[in-house]
């Protein structure tokens, strides 16, 4: 997969990019965990997500947030990283003008950034939020959440306790016109140690079902005259 360097808001950003053979293929953007706790685009889960989308014909990009690897700039507590993600999506879209839709997948801190990007970009039609941390980050901006997606967490996650993730899921599930799918990986911690294969199996199953036209939200009930 080609190494790429593209311009971000705080300097150059380093990424790995795999274009699809199809000009109009959807784009997948993969966002890594917290930069100050060892998160990089080479995180195993981020790499596996990249490969999963690539195998299914997506044009796929993962990149290092500012200050990580060869990406310039300094950690910016989320605001700058959201701008990095928006710049990354702009960069891929500039190379693939025929691509009309996009997915975003984020893990941990990356899930929070991905959900914020979702609010800004109407072309994002699907998301995967892996081990989001509603106990640490404010997700109240999801009002309303514009796209259907998967939220998946570990049953034994002490960083993002299950009850907090369940609260976020229940809040989003009340919204009409989207379908939130929630999966829990039994006995898994925040890092899915020994459980990455199970996690990826759930993500693959979800993506395949979406691509097959399943998991469609129920239409709003018609009013009876």
TrEMBL record:
<dbReference type="GO" id="GO:0016787">
    <property type="term" value="F:hydrolase activity"/>
</dbReference>
<dbReference type="InterPro" id="IPR029058">
    <property type="entry name" value="AB_hydrolase_fold"/>
</dbReference>
<protein>
    <recommendedName>
        <fullName>Xaa-Pro dipeptidyl-peptidase-like domain-containing protein</fullName>
    </recommendedName>
</protein>
<dbReference type="Pfam" id="PF02129">
    <property type="entry name" value="Peptidase_S15"/>
</dbReference>
<feature type="domain" description="Xaa-Pro dipeptidyl-peptidase-like">
    <location>
        <begin position="17"/>
        <end position="138"/>
    </location>
</feature>
<dbReference type="InterPro" id="IPR000383">
    <property type="entry name" value="Xaa-Pro-like_dom"/>
</dbReference>
């Amino acid at each position: 997969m080609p190494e790429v360097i593209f311009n971000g808001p705080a300097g150059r950003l380093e990424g790995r990019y795999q274009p699809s053979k199809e000009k109009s293929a959807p784009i997948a953007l993969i966002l890594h965990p917290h930069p100050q706790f060892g998160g990089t685009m080479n995180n195993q889960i981020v790499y596996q997500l990249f490969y999963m989308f690539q195998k299914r014909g997506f044009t796929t990009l993962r990149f290092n947030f500012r200050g990580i690897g060869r990406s310039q700039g300094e950690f910016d507590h989320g605001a700058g990283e959201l701008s990095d993600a928006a710049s990354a999506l702009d960069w891929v879209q500039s190379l693939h003008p025929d691509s009309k839709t996009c997915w975003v997948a984020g893990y941990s801190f990356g899930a929070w950034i991905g959900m914020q990007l979702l609010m800004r970009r109407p072309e994002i039609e699907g998301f995967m939020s892996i081990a989001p941390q509603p106990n640490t980050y404010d997700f109240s901006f999801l009002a309303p959440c514009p796209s259907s997606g998967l939220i998946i967490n570990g049953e034994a996650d002490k960083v993002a306790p299950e009850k907090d993730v369940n609260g976020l899921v229940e809040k989003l599930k009340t919204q009409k016109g989207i379908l939130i799918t929630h999966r829990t990986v039994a006995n898994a911690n925040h890092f899915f140690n020994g459980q990455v294969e199970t996690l990826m199996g759930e993500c693959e199953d979800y993506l395949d079902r979406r691509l097959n036209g399943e998991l469609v939200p129920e239409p709003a009930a018609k009013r009876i005259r």
